Amino acid sequence: MKKYLFYIQSMIGGGAERVMSTLINSYSNRGVDVFLATNTALPFAYDIDKEVHVIDMYKNDIPVTHSPLNKLKRHFWKYRRIRSIAKEVSPDVAISFVTALNNDVILALLGTHIPVVVSEHTNVNREIPRKTSVLRRLLYPFAKTVTVLTRHDYKIWRTTFKNVVYMPNPCDISETIAPFEERDKTVLAVGRVNMWQIKGFDILLKSWGLICDKYRDWQLHIAGATDDKSLAVLEQIADESCCSNYRFLGFRKDIKELMAKSSVFVLSSRTEGLPMVLIEAMGAGCCCVAFDCVTGPSEIIVDGISGLLAQERDHRDLASKMDIVISNEQRRLSLSKNAPSSVVKYSTERVLRRWSILFNKLH
Length: 363
Fold this sequence. Notes:
Blueprint: E1 3-7, H1 15-29, E2 33-38, E3 53-56, H2 68-89, E4 93-97, H3 99-108, E5 116-119, H4 130-139, E6 145-148, H5 151-157, E7 164-166, E8 184-190, H6 196-199, H7 201-211, E9 219-223, H8 228-240, E10 246-250, H9 255-261, E11 262-267, H10 276-283, E12 287-291, H11 297-300, E13 308-310, H12 315-327, H13 329-342, H14 348-362
Parallel strand pairs: 1-2, 1-4, 2-3, 4-5, 5-6, 6-7, 8-9, 8-11, 9-10, 11-12, 12-13
Helix pairs in contact: 2-3, 3-4, 7-8, 7-12
């Protein structure tokens, strides 16, 4: 039986975590012996197949202090823990998600002869801490494979890393789409509200403030984990932007159901990797409007056919695009009906096939 060992910092919620749950559940259902090393002290936002072996990657007896020596001790313990898990499991391949942990896994598994695949889950030009960036450049050549989410990123990195491959996010594309004509008059946005700067929810509220009075029978719903500080900032922005008819829904596990009921989906991010929520919304038959940010949306949406792209970070253009699809039902329905077929290439089955081809080569 094949053994795959996956590493991720936590499963508390987010795009990388959602992809991780999809992969490990899919492989577990296919008879692969799957191991997941993560922080088990934190709640899991996504259900994990009962056959998956979940291992605590962070439990240790070293007390946390702010001294440099303590930090060094905990780092060394973490490397030893990552390595000991891999030696105990003895997997056919080890897979790590997200840059900082990727560096740790590569370093910890040097000399074990276990093939290591590291996966980036944001665009490769996104600003990250200098130390992490330097370590990535030094360590990624020692991985067997580095996966990136978009063809845009693949073109950038293929000259830097000879082991880079294009690997988009998998998404469960529903075979049955809720009726387009019977949906709620709702504009839906999804993302961590406590990361509102990245998700651009301040821009979205400014955009909504320009058109909400015109469409009083429509609602803007923003779903995603939040905190009091973030909510207070965004509520103030909403007030200053004269927003009405909007709600923050908090973290929701029923995102698919929300998408199935919503007429319009908006992605207002300042930056993305390959936005799964956009793929999922299109797969659910939403009429989608997205900023043409680097990277992702322009590889997913065919502008004017399967959705609309707005000029990056331009709240007036985003408002204009939302105005178009809300006011013109025929245009909205046309974009909705074209959306599902345009994201079939991201279906779990197709992307899993790409992962399996990669793993078979590494074996």
